[in-house]
Design brief:
The protein is of the alpha/beta class. It has one domain: Rossmann fold (3-Layer(aba) Sandwich), CATH 3.40.50. The chain contains six helices and five strands. The chain has a five-stranded parallel β-sheet, with helices on both faces. β4 (85-90), α4 (93-109) and β5 (114-119) form a beta-alpha-beta unit. The radius of gyration is 15 Å and the shape is globular. The termini are far apart.
């Protein structure tokens, strides 16, 4: 079974990695599917995000995890890849409202696609990529929220 874990991951956080590490043993192959949207301004390019995720996946030893990019509807991409499930992380109740609507839309677009929800660990429940970007912008310690390779990549971004 192939499952996709889609998202922008700009940047990947400890919360993302928590969900990823718990989802990987549940499926044969788990693909972290990095969304590319030319209209969305991201801090890291798609290639940078893919490289960071690969480094973090290797660091935690997940051998059945791959990383790829996609553009368009995740339901269509899942069909093309032969994926049968999407993995989505829930941090708080407000996430569920959005994810609930997305799951129904994806099911209408691809009836063979199921959505699997995993709650992130409570110590990661308040982490989001946008919070990480804000903390970084104002010089705060992002090491509380992201793994070391991301801390280093953010440091390089701020000096370039």
């Amino acid at each position: 079974m192939l499952a996709l874990y889609p998202g922008t991951f700009d940047p990947i956080t400890n919360g993302h990695l928590d969900v990823l590490a718990r989802a990987a043993p549940l499926v044969e192959t788990l693909e972290v599917t990095v969304a590319v949207n030319a209209e969305k301004k991201t801090l890291f390019t798609a290639n940078e995000r893919v490289a960071l995720i690969r480094t973090c996946v290797d660091d935690i030893g997940l051998t059945n995890v791959t990383v790829a990019t996609f553009e368009g509807l995740i339901a269509d991409y899942a069909r093309q890849r032969g994926a049968t499930a999407l993995v989505r992380g829930l941090r708080q109740v407000s996430d569920f409202d959005y994810e609930f609507r997305m799951a129904f839309a994806n099911r209408r677009l691809n009836p063979a696609l199921e959505t699997l929800y995993l709650m992130t660990g409570e110590d990661h429940a308040m982490i989001s990529s946008s919070i990480v970007r804000d903390v970084h912008r104002w010089g705060g310690d992002v090491g509380l929220f992201v793994p070391p390779p991301v801390v280093e990549a953010l440091r390089r971004k701020s000096t370039s």
